[in-house]
């Protein structure tokens, strides 16, 4: 059975290999440890569950727990829910993502900018496995009011948004989406280097 000591002994380079050898009981224990106040154990449990989810579907069975975390008063717990739901969208044969998408997208307005970024970045994974949600996701992203976000984080968050929109744009074209990208290119949030990079991506 996995213990605090045994998971803390796993180096980052060995996470993937360790995740492959987890038992059903280990996974259940790791999910429980996601609620610990001990940051180090909790984070290691998250890394192992994320890595396991990339190869096997057992973590998907805990979807309801991850979804409940989206409503937590604790920002770390909200982030955990965001990341593990995104990681398990590939296994979503029950279409649970469709049920949770609006709840998930509420995290775009989280009080913590880091949580907002994690939500946006995770959407890039979700649309790969749930392309039918692209229109809903694109609409919510372009509606996000960046003036509600502190100035120092606006550029980073806008770049996150644009990365997701460019993925969506490969299969979904809309005037709203094109207008948003054009506005980002002409606006004053991005620096010239970022605008040049974005311009090259748009032309692909």
Keywords:
mainly alpha, 204 residues, elongated
Identify the quaternary structure here.
single chain
Strand content: under 5%
H/I helix tally: 12
Outline type:
elongated
Largest sheet: none
SSE blueprint:
Layout: H1 4-8, H2 15-20, H3 24-33, H4 39-53, H5 63-69, H6 75-87, H7 96-105, H8 113-129, H9 134-143, H10 151-169, H11 175-186, H12 192-203
Summarize the structure in words.
The protein is mainly alpha-helical. It has a domain of 107 residues. It contains 12 helices and no strands. Helix 5 runs antiparallel to helix 6 and helix 6 runs parallel beside helix 8. The N and C termini lie far apart (50 Å).
Quickly describe the structure.
The protein is 67% helix and 0% strand. The chain has 204 residues and is an all-alpha fold.
